[in-house]
Design goal:
Largest sheet: 5 strands, antiparallel
Order of helices and strands: EEHHEEEEEH
Structural class: alpha+beta
Strand order of the largest sheet: 3-4-5-6-7
Strand content: 15-25%
Distance between the termini: 36 Å
Shape: globular
Number of helices: 3
Number of strands: 7
Radius of gyration: 20 Å
Helix content: 25-40%
Length: about 150
């Protein structure tokens, strides 16, 4: 039980007292991260977050690679964790741009031709210019998310 108990050094007692642990949830970490962004970017990211999370109950969020990301929370067939099969989208917010990186985007049909790039590792990118751009692609984004979920090996 190393790390589970703390010595109370502020009293005469030498008894162990339970350590106070405060762990921030994934959702709180994402909210804190967004709160540190430039307000205009934060507004767009908040909107994207709402769209993605409202698409399916099987989508969760967390901070991965120093940015908000979305992942599949449901049951999956066993796989090598280095394949990142659970990852749906990882945001890239470097220098104020809004880019959604789909680590396995190559498996999507991309009928609407909104995914960019042809990376050998299967990544594809969805770039947004502003909030109006996000809103104009919202329905397509949700369809892509549902398609991605439908392709999960369970």
């Amino acid at each position: 039980m190393v790390g589970k108990k703390l010595i109370n050094i502020y009293s005469n007692s030498s008894k162990f007292m339970p350590a106070k642990t405060t762990q921030i949830s994934d959702q709180e970490q994402v909210a804190i991260h967004i709160g540190k962004l430039e307000p205009a970017i934060a507004e767009i990211i908040t909107y994207i977050r709402k769209v993605v999370l409202n698409t399916s109950a099987e989508i969760g969020e967390r901070i991965k690679w120093n940015n908000p990301s979305f992942y599949f929370t449901g049951e999956m067939a066993p796989f090598d964790p280095k394949e990142y099969k659970r990852e749906i989208i990882v945001m890239n917010l470097y220098k104020g741009r809004i880019m959604l990186v789909w680590p396995s985007g190559a498996k999507l049909k991309n009928d609407h031709k909104i995914l960019e790039g042809d990376y050998k590792d299967g990544r594809r990118l969805l770039v947004f210019n502003d909030l109006d751009d996000v809103k104009s692609k919202e329905t397509i984004l949700q369809k892509m998310l549902l398609e991605w979920i439908s392709l999960v090996e369970r």
